[in-house]
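Researcher: Next entry in the queue.
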Amino acid sequence: MFDEARSLRIDFDSEAAFRAEYVSNISNGGVFIETNAGFGMRDPVRIDLALRWCDQSISLDGEVVRVDSPEHVHAGSPVGVAVQFSLNPSDLRERLEPVLARMASEDGSACGPGHRIAQRAPVRVPVLIRARGGREIEGRSRDLSTSGTLVAIEGESVPVGDVVELAIANPTSRTELEVRATVVRQVQRPGIGVALGVHFEVPPSDAEAVLGFLRELQLAEDSWRLGGISGPVAEIGIENVLQMFGSCSQQGTLLLANGDDEAVVVFERGMLCGVQLGEAFGRKALARVLAWRTGTFEFTAKASPAWYRGDPVPLDAAILGALRLLDESRRTAPGAFPPAARLRVDREKLAAAACELSQAEEAILDLAAVGMSLGKVIDAIPEPDEEIRQLLARLVERGLIALVD
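Model: Structure for this entry, 405 residues:
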């Protein structure tokens, strides 16, 4: 296949330059090369890594998986091709072993036989956490290295220092890794949920098998991303990003990031199949995401059923509905519903009320009765935030509840 491949060369003048490229791209199974040469999708190509600081060259075969031509990139963005290597992760490490061993020994980041480097990369796969007392918590990894991972979870958190058992799934190969880990940090965002940083506790006898599983996950994630499109939200606007990809692609997944917050939007044939932001999902999550004015997006023309949630709804209608709620929220008096405020239920008026209450209104009253703050009440109810504020205003107006500072 590669007899007719054209060659592209990348020069590395220092070990530091190669280290940066290895951690960012090469270790994940691919590389981006700036070039004006005419390439097409799936063209074979040979990549020559010229390690000039040690007078060594390594050639790797691959194929083009993305072409950024001048007419398809933003002004100032690089023109070139993304190449996916043909070697599997273990063979790729073997080819680069002499360089990796030297790098690991010099920076002290060796992690087991062969002096592997524990680089961190974004990987989003299902993770089941088995915590103290047999409690099971579902989550998804946000990034991954050979030493640990950050897992976004739903529900009650796990204290720092606790030892847990993780079951990490590989959706591509339908395999699973079970590994013991220690919770080393928590990242908590109001209304977004909790992410746990865990450090793997791997016996030396299992180190090679664990390393191979994690490398396969990183390679699968990078292959998924290489054919995608990414960019800043501020230049386009999230609503335009959704409408643009939703109208021109049969299916797709958008990964949206704004600071520590991450959201996933999945659509297929013009239907919104799932949207999640931390613990919020559906219309609630979509409305919160559309309020962002900064951040980044990554799009790929694939839709994993793992992100589907609830019944699909027309994408255009869902966006318009969320934008309407945002427009109404801008007309709400600033500070009318401070998140730290408490709610007091007037039980006498509630008992005397002749009108029926909606399910959401009943949920507000139930949560208020147990002493939840206003912010937690809004987070706990699945309806969009502005709908809940409108219901709160109606309940306050009728005298059924009152805000307590």
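Model: The first strand starts at residue 6 and ends at 12.
Researcher: Noted, moving on.
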